[in-house]
Amino acid sequence: MTMTYRLRPLYILGGYLSATCLVLICALITAQIIGRIVDLVATALGGERIGLAIPGLAEISGFLLVGATFLGLAYTFIHGAHIRVTLLIGRLPARRRVYVEAACLSVALALCLYLTFYTYRLLADSIAFGETSYGLLSIPLWLPQSAMLGGIVLLCLALGEAWWQALAAAARHPEAFTLDDGSPE
Fold it and tell me: How far is CA 35 from CA 25, 29, 52, in A?
């Protein structure tokens, strides 16, 4: 039995959005470096600094890193790229393994739902109070928190699908259960 995710396109979209955040970080840092080189060359040639700098670059990059991290959670989960300790569960017979897997997924899903609830409350408070970042730029905190909540919700959906399939396997054919290698179908 291998896991089939019906919402796979949604998880892949999260992966693409995560990658986009990483590309934006790279582009912004590259632009900052080029700006510094241009300033260095201008002063070496006897001119004045042009001042090509991106204000709040560290802050913007940090918020994009939050987006990259959280939006990619479901994508990495469905591809089996999360760190899992299968030393014990991999040695269990299939009939027991399916129940242990369902129990582990239950705990993970419960923790993820807990995180979703409190991240939503944090986001709602940030919107209600108009909270902004403390850095050079006044960025509304609901922007990175929205990406964070979106990524956690995607992970909850992926965990829920895996949990449901593990329960179905336990009820129907526990002897056919194998640990998913995460490879795309």
Answer: 15, 10, 5
